[in-house]
Automatic annotation (TrEMBL):
Assigned keywords, A-Z: NAD, Oxidoreductase
Pfam families hit by this protein: Aldedh (PF00171)
Entry's family note: Belongs to the aldehyde dehydrogenase family.
The protein's name: 5-carboxymethyl-2-hydroxymuconate semialdehyde dehydrogenase
PROSITE patterns in UniProt: ALDEHYDE_DEHYDR_GLU
Gene3D superfamilies tied to this protein: Aldehyde Dehydrogenase, Chain A, domain 1, Aldehyde Dehydrogenase, Chain A, domain 2
Record bears the keyword NAD: yes
């Protein structure tokens, strides 16, 4: 064990001790509470299955208390000047940065993502707050729209209390990606983190508290989707739901939220293609293909889980890819050398492994991996997996596996590539590798996805829109798109008193 690894284990143990010793509750109206019923669930470690502590399951009464607190705080938070909100949110970012190491170690231990990636969690989370904080003073600004005898102008106002429901794959970053623009817009928030990885959300709520957010502006409830999540989506005080998770859950939420006619924003699943043409920069494409499916344990919505590889370079590319996948370092998430860690939960682990059987049944080849790793202890470890000889009809090409598992599919022509890429219910991201500029332009337009990267892995740009089409989502995050979701637009029309007002009923 390297000294760095040992230090990480020791530090993580110190940070995790309080969660092991004390039941984690909810943060409602500026106070920590164990809730109305106090029923708990066990938060298991992906590394060895041991308990990381008990967490309270929110009851309907707890959710109601959180939503009412958010509703009560809404007026004052919305009335606060954007400049003041900006100051508070920057302070919150300071608090996150001050606890960056703790956040990384806790998050890595809780969800199994290797520390080498999770080190960025707090940095990116803080950057989200700073970016949206800076936009807060101008968030209400609208447009001036002139007519001959009237002037129209638009003003924007916060929609009201927002429910934020997040998944377990990169919980800290994703939560800040939603909560930061909501707060900057002037909305109060009730956050429900995923039950598989609740710890970093508690640290985030503590940072909010330390930053001096007024009570009720930020509320956090723990618990399961079927009770806590469902109640949040149905609560009449909640005006919008920002959801990140599986497509099937998004569909349930749309139904649950229908009676109260909520605005909903969905960032859902994907089966994203990376399309590598014969004329691609071989080495850069290979690096990106490996990175975009095996980083973050493949538990990443924008992972490129389908490799579409052109016939001319197929054999050479797959041979090089195979060697790289075989060489990936699987290990403890806190080991700085680890490239692939354990999967978040036994349920998810079994789901991912089931696709090895599906691949064989459907006639694909398991070129690399597909096995449980047992010599790393009792954790959810599997060998990074590569399926070859696959076609797009197979389950491994159609269903989101959400693990370090790549399905390679051969194509011959540009038209074939487009057909295969689009033959999916999903449409989140696509990656195109070619040195032909015209082709990259044609492909970028023809591929059905919310985001396309040309000759690049997923590169993040906060002002750019992020989101999916088809079953991958509704709505966009990022830049002003986030404000559009969390705010209402009002049109004000003022006459010059020169136009003829229609006259009825005059003698
Ligand atoms: P999930 O849908 O199972 O759970 C997400 C959240 O929804 C959890 O907090 C859960 O408790 C809650 N939930 C479950 N049922 C609910 C219900 N009926 N009502 C309200 N809330 C409910 O997703 P997951 O397994 O935690 O996360 C993995 C999924 O998230 C993958 O499909 C992945 O692609 C997707 N994801 C998408 C993006 C994106 O930006 N498009 C980003 C990250 C993850």
């Amino acid at each position: 064990m390297s000294q760095d690894f040992k230090n990480n284990i020791d530090k993580a143990a110190t940070y995790l001790a309080r969660f092991k010793q004390n039941t984690l509750g909810h943060y409602i109206n500026g106070e920590w509470t164990l809730g109305s019923e106090g029923e708990t669930f066990d938060n298991g470690s992906p590394v060895n299955g041991e308990s990381l502590g008990k967490v309270v399951k929110a009851s309907v009464v707890d959710v109601d208390a959180a939503c009412k607190a958010a509703a009560k705080a809404q007026k004052e938070w919305a009335a606060m000047s954007g400049a003041k909100r900006k100051t508070i949110l920057h302070k919150l970012a300071d608090k996150i940065e001050a606890r960056a190491e703790e956040i990384a170690l806790v998050e890595s231990s809780d969800c199994g993502q290797p520390l080498r990636f999770m080190r960025q969690a707090a940095v990116r989370g803080a950057a989200n707050f700073r970016f949206f904080a800076d936009k807060a003073p101008e968030a209400r600004n609208g447009l001036a729209l002139q007519q001959e005898e009237h002037t129209n102008f638009t003003v924007k106002s916060p929609i009201g209390p927002v429910g934020v429901i997040t998944p377990w794959n990169t919980p800290f970053m994703l939560s800040t990606w939603k909560i930061a623009p909501a707060l900057a817009s002037g909305c109060t928030v009730v956050h429900k983190p995923a039950e598989f990885s609740p710890l970093s959300a508690a640290i985030l709520a503590e940072c909010a508290d330390e930053a001096g957010l007024p009570p009720g502006v930020w509320n956090m409830i723990n618990g399961f989707g079927e009770v806590a999540g469902k109640e949040l989506t149905q609560h009449p005080d909640i005006k919008a739901i920002a959801f990140v998770g599986e497509t099937v859950t998004g569909s349930m939420i749309q139904k649950q939220a229908a009676d109260t006619l909520k605005r909903a924003h969905f960032e859902l699943g994907g089966k994203n293609p990376v399309i590598v043409f014969d004329d691609a920069d071989f080495d850069r494409a290979l690096d990106a293909v490996v990175f975009m499916i095996y980083s973050l344990n493949g538990q990443r919505c924008t992972s490129s889980s389908r490799l579409l590889i052109q016939t001319g370079i197929k054999d050479r590319f797959l041979a090089a890819l195979k060697a790289r996948v075989e060489n990936l370092k699987v290990g403890h998430p806190l080991d700085p050398a680890t490239e692939v860690g354990p999967l978040v939960h036994t349920t998810h682990y079994e789901k991912v492994l089931s696709y090895v059987d599906a691949a064989i049944e459907d006639g694909a080849t398991v070129a690399v991996g597909g096995k449980r790793i047992t010599d790393l202890g009792n954790g959810n470890y599997l060998t990074p997996t590569l399926f070859t000889n696959a076609d797009n009809t197979m389950r491994i090409a159609r269903e989101e596996i959400f693990g370090p598992v790549l399905t390679a599919i051969e194509f011959e022509t540009e038209e074939d590539a487009v057909t295969i890429a689009n033959d999916t219910n999903y449409g989140l991201a696509a990656y195109i590798w070619t040195s032909n500029t015209g082709r990259s332009m044609r492909m970028a337009h023809s591929v059905e996805s919310g985001m396309v990267w040309v000759n690049s892995e997923n590169n993040r740009n906060l002002p750019s829109p992020f989101g999916g089409v088809k079953m991958s989502g509704i709505g966009r995050d990022g830049g002003d798109w986030s404000f559009d979701f969390y705010m209402e637009t009002k049109n004000v029309c003022i006459a010059f008193d020169t136009h003829r007002v229609p006259v009825l009923g005059r003698e």
